[in-house]
Amino acid sequence: MAQTQLTKPISLIAIGGSSGSFEALTKILLNLKPDFSIPLIMILHRNNADSGLAAVLSIRTNLTVKEAEEKESIAKAHLYLAPPDYHLLLENDRSFSLDASEKINYSRPSIDVTFESAANVYMEELLCVILSGANSDGTKGGLYAKNTGSKVIVQNPLEAGVAYMPQHAINAISTDGIYSIEEIAMYLNDL
After folding, report:
1. Is 137 a catalytic residue?
2. pTM for this predicted structure
3. Active site (annotated) includes residue 18
4. Catalytic: which of 110, 112, 137, 150?
5. Which of the 8 DSSP states describes residue 107?
6. What is the pLDDT of residues 11-65, one digit of tens each?
């Protein structure tokens, strides 16, 4: 008798991006169904001057949008932003930890750091999404996450504002899909 493989539902979505990803994230948020409740983490390469990002994004979604805080527990129906100039880590109790160690891929926050940390905690309950960007951040963390059982999807480089980041991930990871922004939103809504 064949054994069926049970898959756990996705409990966390980590989205990474850089140049061109703000527009992509905005479109995703606008297309999420009103009752979408899976927590999202956004790791966006940005500078300290972007302090109003949570307010800008909150008008585009029903999710509660806020910057992640030290020791804060992850809650449903929230979009957490990695604070500028900190790596965002996840603890085993599913809370956040902020780290100011050296930049990785010239970035802090680093997508790789958060993807790897989230994969250690959530494993097959994690979905990583790699959006537009101009460096390879996200590839190493996405590959690590994939090897722990997480799912990894990537924005189609042909429609990305900057194709380098998603293309680099596609070249290195056996992804679970390469999608347009509209398709990514549909994928998230179907989870």
Report:
1. yes
2. 0.94
3. yes
4. 137
5. B
6. 999 999 999 999 999 999 999 999 999 999 999 987 665 568 888 888 889 999 9
